Amino acid sequence: MTATTKLTILSTSDTHGYVLPTNYVIRAGVQPFGLTRAATVINTVRQEDPEHTLVVENGDFLQGSPLAYYAVRGTAQPDPTLLTQAYNALGYDVGTLGNHEFNYGSAYLRQVLATLTYPLAQANILAADGQPAFAPPYQLIKKGELTVAVLGLTTSFIPHWEGPDHIAGLQFADVLATAKTWVPRLRKLADVVVVIYHGGFERDLASGAPTERLTGENVGYALSAIPGIDALVTGHQHRQLAGHVHGVPITQPGYRGEAVGQITLTVAHSGNQWQVQASSARLLPTGEAAPDPQMTTLMAPVQATVEDWLDSPLGRVQGDMRITDPDAARITESPYIEFIQKVQMAATGTDISGTALFNNEGTGFGSTVSLRDVMTNYIYPNTLAVLRVTGSVLKAALEKSARYFQPGPHGTIAVNPRFLTPKPQRYNYDMYHGITYTIDVAQPMGERITQLDYHGAPVRPDQVLEITVNQYRAGGGGNYTMFSADSIVRENQKDMTELIADYLKAHPVITATADHNFHVINSSAT
Question: In the chain, what are the domains?
Fold first, then answer.
């Protein structure tokens, strides 16, 4: 006699604290994403068979939105419940950690985790003694007649991005080795083995061809090949994926709750064991779902407070510091970018600075600058580091940035599609101030910097320079392998949002200027 049952696995990942359906660019803005919309989708599916529905949170939930920032920086003392009350209300069965969980340090992370009412699984982030640092490696969860083992894993690449003080005393074990250790054990303990991995795919899902440098940041393709995994939930890359890899159903539900991952397993009982007979994977878009009314009501008081906080004026602008065309702002220096460079140089005492226009949602500054303007333009809690490098290293970094472009038709300048798919990486194109340089996209990659001057003279390969960049870039983040923590000579540990606010307090009226020290050209047009 063979009996069958179905197990539904619903997942969110990379919600980044976007609970209400807004990106905060304008007060009470409405966007087609957010945890409240995801909650409606999840509850609709879950109520069909709650006994056999597993709901998982796959990391990167406590950093990203102004709400998340307010919980840690906007009050006299950090109060993570202002954010985590929403995640608790959704009713997750289990969660794991993302890399951005460490952006405010381990102490705050532990404070956050103490407020969660659902359990975590995390197997490869270890304390100094080799034991799990934050949660058990796995959770055994009963779903109807099934025992489900959920193994939690997080990209081991975190030390390449995070400030050392935020991860002191922690070890980040290899994801694949950890999974190979635990999956066979879990097969003996459970009927179904689910891996939730805050990481993505390093290869094309169909062909297996590499889609990025194989650094170990994303190992989802190799992970899915480990025998014994019945379902794999992924994240980190902000991609929307659903399908099968090596026969294993996989999902990745995008960014800010724009979709919910759904994996359905048909599990048959024969003899003395359960076995997955069939599976499907799909994404459930949330954009047209009405925000969950209970969660919306729960979050209304803090949301109103955050909106008021964001509208606090910080300074005024003489001139025009708006960004109306973000693509153009990466080709011709905008006053907003020059302003950010000035803040970075003032905070670190250098006269060379590099920064990025992180996405296409920022609009720069209008005539009055509010905290909302600061936080919706500078979206990461970066700190700053000063690197001591040679001219050849600086040129290598500029050549890396120059890969962002490619020649377009009729002598135009286009964006290299590798920076747009499979994951947008606009944050990996840096613009510099304090030097004069030219990028010629008509030249071969690696030979595009046709001019590089400092104080009116060509930069020599052996010339020693101090440059300011964010901590992520200083550690080599974004595959800027010419940089490393070994070259850091000093740091400013304040978040950039605080540094910008402090600068505006000291300079309540700022002037929109751009000296156009860099040029991006396509010489084939001439």
Answer: 3-306 (3.60.21.10), 313-525 (3.90.780.10)
